[in-house]
Design goal:
globular; eight-stranded mixed sheet; 733 residues; 39% helix; alpha/beta
């Protein structure tokens, strides 16, 4: 029997779950079992848990359906547990180093106890000093084990369940379970402390609670706040049944209604049903008020008296006088230029156009990427929606015929941004764009992340200096309603790098649809347009941007590579889009395609890809053609830019470290041998699960047409897809 069973619910926290599990497995005290509770075998969190289970036999995942909520997940973990003591850990929190050793030592001092509350550390999500919210509650507790009557203010209702150790036999004896609904910790902790006979506390920090940027879910607006009254009633009923003495029932009553009044006094938490909440709370107050209970002083005491009297109008008036007078809308940023600001402000007063969608890609660099693919599919499936693309003035000539566009920064562009119901971008709209009620912002992203993104960049000085204000970045994130994801890996990274309240759409990238829908004629046409000689092996070389470089550096002598790799090799050079201002034409066997409008076309034309750390590898993998990673400066890139995973340990094909190695794998054919194919297959399984040729359709139906998720086209399994054929295959056939 292990000393501790550590139960970790994982719903909605896949992006941080690995860190939570790692914090347990890294403990110096090793006598434990770790029980991640996942939604289902195919969920992102289940994949993280399964990976840890393969590495450590102490990890034993179990499953609980999302419909059962946090309470159901924890109860499932309790049923599976075999340890002497139960510990709970939220999937986005961590155990502090040495926590289990300190807890075991404390239990050795006190002997067996039913409950052992511990301190925890609340860490602001971004900056600021950590706090210890439980410290005032625990600092006056007796030093050893004690009966709860000796510390009547330790009622449990103010403690999270993950800030204590619970004796499993005690839980089983009293048939304790997390009650359904929200605020389940109130019901569990309150009832457990009522039943406990022997308690001790530890003033050592057990858990580091990492606050969410989007706030505690229990403090967000919604009808779920009515569940607080359900949990309060459960605890009060149990206290009444036990005949709790006044010295214990008074503090319990006061602490429960402190939480109730805090909710009643915040109108944003209860968008509707405030009067009903108040009336029910008032009835509970009068029905369970202990004899001789005296309300606290000050404003809180006034609220107690109004609640006891059932005076909702007076309570609401008191609440409204304490509400902030100003509104955040008055401080919203506006476009530069007085005339433009006035024009945009006037347009914001007009109603939204329900049939207007505005698109933008790469900060206005043209008609490209996921927004272009969604725009094209919307013209087919939702022709009633007018789509307008925003581009920079010098890119207007690149917009295809028949596509309506507006120049970024113009009065017309600001008018469109003010009135569009749908706004689609693969980067971010300008800081001054206002998120209007009823508008729908779709962030499509423009690649699968290998390098660090968003707030994850903050610990890399070179990148952080170039990124600018993370506060402004997150202000733009707050406008997102939907965030597109091409694979579970991306979902987890976006969740961590761009914390917000948007909904993830794991639909695949619309721009990658063409890799399944294109045919042999399309490939031949594109190669001819790019000037690829018939019968040549076209190798696409696509290096990524280096934040520590000031301009484009090829990183490879391409002429020498062609000579060494084989006489039939030509290179399609595509620099990062930061350097797409005009092409450099053709030189020998090097064809510069940096300025070509479509990276998808370039990929279709190539028989193989050579890249360093560019996200183009994830898109190109959908074609199931050879990929070679040229990692000559991997260590430098990893240290200066930061990465999400070790590419060299799980590459999409052969890895070359020097120009000689790179030329050799093409000269001897090993770039396309069975070993390279096996690596590519594993890579595709991980990063290409949704790109089946129907991603754009799923996006249009869900976002623009409002169809429910269950009505969308199902994803075609990877094994059943037929990628566009490579030209080399056509020559052989």
């Amino acid at each position: 029997m292990p000393r501790f069973s550590i139960i970790v619910p994982s719903h909605g926290v896949a992006g941080r779950l690995g860190q939570a599990l790692d914090s347990v497995l890294a403990q110096s005290f090793g006598d434990f079992e770790l029980i991640p509770v996942c939604d289902a075998a195919g969920s992102p969190a289940a994949g993280v848990a399964a990976g840890h289970a393969e590495q450590d036999s102490r990890v034993a995942p179990v499953h609980a359906p999302p419909s059962e909520g946090l309470a159901g997940a924890r109860n499932a973990g309790v049923r599976a547990a075999t340890g002497t003591y139960l510990l709970f850990l939220d999937g986005d929190d961590v155990l502090v180093p040495g926590a289990l050793a300190a807890l075991d030592a404390r239990l050795a001092e006190t002997g067996p106890v039913d409950v052992l509350p511990c301190e925890h550390e609340r860490v602001p999500w971004w900056e600021g000093e950590p706090t210890r919210p439980a410290a005032p509650l625990l600092e006056h507790a007796p030093g050893g084990a004690f009966a709860p009557a000796r510390a009547p203010r330790l009622t449990g209702v103010g403690l999270p369940a993950w800030s204590a150790a619970w004796r499993r036999a005690f839980v089983a004896e009293h048939e304790l379970a997390f009650p359904p609904g929200w605020f389940t910790d109130v019901g569990w902790c309150g009832r457990a402390l009522l039943r406990a006979e022997r308690v001790a506390v530890s003033r050592r920090v057990l858990v580091r609670h990492r606050a969410r940027r989007q706030g505690d879910r229990l403090r967000l607006p919604g009808a779920h706040h009515h569940d607080l009254l359900d949990q309060t009633e459960r605890v009060l009923d149990e206290a009444s049944g036990l005949g709790l003495p006044a010295e214990r029932s008074g503090p319990l009553f006061e602490q429960l209604f402190a939480a109730v009044l805090k909710t009643a006094a915040h109108p944003r938490r209860l968008p509707s049903g405030r009067r009903e909440f108040f009336r029910r709370a008032s009835a509970l107050y009068r029905g369970h008020r202990p004899a001789g209970f005296r309300p606290p002083g000050g404003s809180l005491g006034v609220q107690h008296r109004l609640l006891a009297a059932g005076s909702y109008e007076a309570f609401a008036a008191l609440r409204d006088t304490r509400r902030a007078a100003g509104r955040a809308a008055g401080a919203l940023p506006r476009p530069r230029g007085l005339r433009t600001r006035l024009h945009y402000g006037l347009q914001l007063r007009r109603p939204l156009d329900p049939d207007l969608a505005v698109y933008c890609a790469y900060w206005g660099r043209g008609y490209a990427c996921n927004p272009a693919a969604i725009h094209a599919k919307a013209r087919e499936l939702a022709p009633h929606i007018r789509g307008v693309f925003l581009v920079e003035a010098d890119q207007a000539h690149t917009v295809p015929d028949g596509v309506e566009y507006a120049v970024l920064g113009s009065h017309r562009a600001w008018e469109l941004l003010a009135r569009a119901t749908y706004l689609v971008n693969n980067a971010n709209f300008a800081e001054g764009v206002v998120k209007r009620p009823g508008s729908v912002h779709l962030q499509t992203q423009h690649g699968t992340p290998l390098k660090t993104m968003g707030v994850d960049q903050s610990t890399y000085p070179v990148v952080a200096a170039a990124t600018g204000s993370f506060t402004k970045l997150l202000g733009r994130v707050d406008r997102w309603d939907f965030n597109l994801s091409s694979n579970p890996h991306s979902t987890r990274v976006w969740e961590r790098a761009f914390p917000g309240s948007y909904e993830h759409l794991e639909y695949g990238y619309p721009r990658n649809d063409v890799y399944v829908t294109a045919g042999a004629d399309d490939v031949a046409r594109i190669r001819a347009e790019l000037g690829v000689p018939e019968g040549a092996r076209a190798v696409l070389y696509a290096p990524t941007h280096r934040d520590h470089h000031t301009g484009f550096e090829p990183g490879l002598d391409l002429e020498a590579f062609c000579e060494a790799a084989g006489e039939d090799v030509v290179v399609l050079l595509r620099a990062h889009y930061f350097y797409d201002r005009g092409g450099r034409g053709r030189s020998g066997r090097i064809i510069d395609v940096t300025a070509h409008r479509s990276s998808e076309d370039v990929c279709l034309a190539a028989d193989a890809l050579v890249t360093d750390y560019s996200s183009i590898m994830f898109d190109y993998a959908n074609l199931d053609r050879p990929i070679v990673v040229y990692a000559d400066d991997w260590e430098v890139y990893r240290e200066t830019r930061g990465v999400c995973f070790d590419l060299t340990a799980a590459p999409p094909g052969r890895v070359a470290r020097t120009p000689g190695e790179l030329a050799r794998v093409f000269r001897d054919g090993s770039y396309a041998d069975d070993e390279a194919a096996a690596l590519r297959a594993a890579f595709r399984e991980r990063f290409c699960p949704f790109d089946d040729g129907r991603a754009a359709e799923r996006v249009v139906r869900r976002v623009l047409l409002g169809e429910p998720p269950e009505a969308l086209p199902p994803v075609i399994p990877l094994a059943e897809r037929v990628p566009a054929p490579a030209a080399a295959n056509l020559v052989r056939s």
